[in-house]
Amino acid sequence: MDDTKELDMSGISEMFNEPTANKISVGIVSFFLIFLGINTVDLLDNNEKVRAVVDGDSDWTVSFEEQIVALSNTIVVADGAIETIEFVIEDTLVAEGYRIGGFAIQITYGETSGIPGDPLDSVFASIEQNDLKVVWDDDNNTMTGSSNDGSGIDLYLRAYEGYDGENKNMTGYNEIQVLGPWSMDGTGLGTLNVELSVETNALPFTTDNEEEITVNVNLITFKPTAMN
Ligand SMILES: [Ca+2]
Q: According to the per-residue pLDDT averaged within each range, which of 4-8, 31-35, 84-88 is highest?
């Protein structure tokens, strides 16, 4: 009995000591590990795809179609006076499916005194902060400007947070989701007030006590489209 046991034991240990048997078992183990490894990678990859669909991880490009709505008004401002020109911005100005992204404002004037050689006046313009629904603290805003040579004054006011007309890369599950940030209602609505003042420049012994100023307001409206 004892002999048989001893024989069996030595048989097993001989098998493990056998170099070929060791190589085979190492081979099997490696294969098994590689196989397991491949499966794990595959599982992770599948998981990633599933997660992409569930979490809405697919990439989209949102582009914008723009329509400019032009408004204009002219006012005569007396020397030293401050006048406010008012534009009421209602949603009826904006086409269906469009939203107001911003206001590009240009103020122009010439010399209207009719006196030959009368030098150009100085004009100062500023957007008055009120309850107009815009991004008042946006870095791209130009709220004030002036001119003393008859060149135009350009002002800009962003109405829609983050809107600059450039395509946006978005991540999301579907079109509705990626268009969500671009579907906010009511931006830009209210009253846009542009404050104007004039300092006339006149030739000696002539009278130039006012100037005519035109304010052109371009409402930049946009309609977003998502593509993936
Ligand atoms: Ca003048």
A: 84-88
The 10 Å Cβ neighbour count of residue 125 is 24
User: What percent of the chain is predicted at pLDDT more than 70?
Assistant: 75
What are 214's two structure tokens? 């035109």
DSSP designation for 173: S
Q: How far is the CA of 150 from the centre of ligand 1 (A)?
A: 10
Determine the distance separating the centroid of ligand 1 and the alpha carbon of 203, expressed in angstroms. 8
- How large is the average pLDDT for residues 67-83? 97
Q: Identify the pLDDT of residue 56.
A: 53
Interval between CA 116 and ligand 1 midpoint (Å): 10
Cβ atoms of 210 and 102 closer than 8 Å? no
CA 155 / ligand 1 centre spacing (Å): 23
Q: What is the pLDDT of residue 1?
A: 46
Residues with a beta carbon under 5 angstroms from ion ligand 1? 118, 121, 200-201, 208
> What's the CA-to-centroid distance between 123 and ligand 1, angstroms?
11
Beta strands in 57-167 (DSSP E): 58-78, 82-89, 99-109, 122-128, 144-147, 153-158
**Cβ–Cβ under 8 Å, residues 94 and 221:** yes
